[in-house]
Amino acid sequence: MHSIVRLDLLSQTDMATTTYLSVFNAASLAGWTYIMAETSLALYKDQDIVISSAKLWGLVAHPLKLIQIFAVLDVLHIIFGIVRSPLGLTLTQVCTRFFNLFVIYSLCPDSRYHEGFILTIFVWALVAIARHGIYLLNLITRGQNWFVSLQILLCLVLYPLGFVGEASCILKALPFLSTGVYSIQMPNDHNISLSLLTIVYIMFGLSCIHLFLRLSNAASQSRQPTLPAGYHDAALKSK
Hints:
Layout: H1 2-46, H2 49-70, H3 72-79, H4 87-107, H5 115-141, H6 145-177, H7 196-223, H8 229-237
Family: Belongs to the very long-chain fatty acids dehydratase HACD family.
InterPro entries: Tyr_Pase-like_PTPLA
EC number: 4.2.1.134
């Protein structure tokens, strides 16, 4: 009797996890699809990528910030064992995205007024749509690994493009940051010095390391494509 009750509780837990992951990925997919639609519509209307880049921040800044805050759940899913995936890669991506979004793009207008910015947002949206869409499809269709192979292929192409876009935005921001703006300089009451430009260099180095590890991980997965364990387990248990 106790074993039957235990199995029933486990089944209910699995169902709740699958439902939660489905809702989470559906919401993330909807948010990134909206950002992609706004980006594509701006390009279509303006017929000029530079003009569209200058306008894009006003169109997508708030949804971008909201969905990036929402992405913190990806880290929590791993910490609490809901999804078993590399914590370091996910945490590094979330941190570098946060820094680019809330520091580089928010504080340095020059970082947004060129083609690299629209490339960055376009690639972020494409990667997220592919990732959340594939996870959602696997939860619904019970784990088809060819979906994962497609995601890995897209990542191998899109991550380097996204890195190029992000790097170009940082380069555009450097002249503004090199003036010492947003930095704490000596002398001051607390006798401390903190340069935002130095932090930018550190975060850029972290982005380089993340790109290398991400591509290495994708190349490794391409030899035997599998879902992150939480999604794979949920898909199998729904059979």
